[in-house]
Amino acid sequence: MEHSKLILEACGFRLGYRVPFHLVYCVVFVLELLLTLLSPLVKINLPTSISMLNYINHNYSYRRDRAAQELDYHPLFTYQQAKDHSTQYYSKMKT
Questions:
Q1: What is the mean pLDDT of residues 47-76?
Q2: What b/e string do you get for 19-37 counting C-beta neighbours within 10 Å, with b at 16 or more?
Q3: Where are the domains positioned within the chain?
Q4: Could you give the CA distance from residue 28 to residue 64 in angstroms, rounded to a whole number?
């Protein structure tokens, strides 16, 4: 949840209460469908999308020691650097 909260706050959303994911997903899906049907007449961009909802709702975690052992992987950034870069990137998406 921490990652989702960082991304949402970086995009300018205020978090005060929780709304069930399935409800938000259905609302955004219907809005995207309506805008697709209206696209020949008017071009409107939503501040979010189904793919963004799916992304922020997933927890992506990997075992760094296993990746280092099996793939000879070593991260380019520390956790804090990656978090800072992600927050900065998503804060630019709100415009």
A1: 83
A2: eeeeeeeeebeeeeeeeee
A3: 2-92
A4: 35
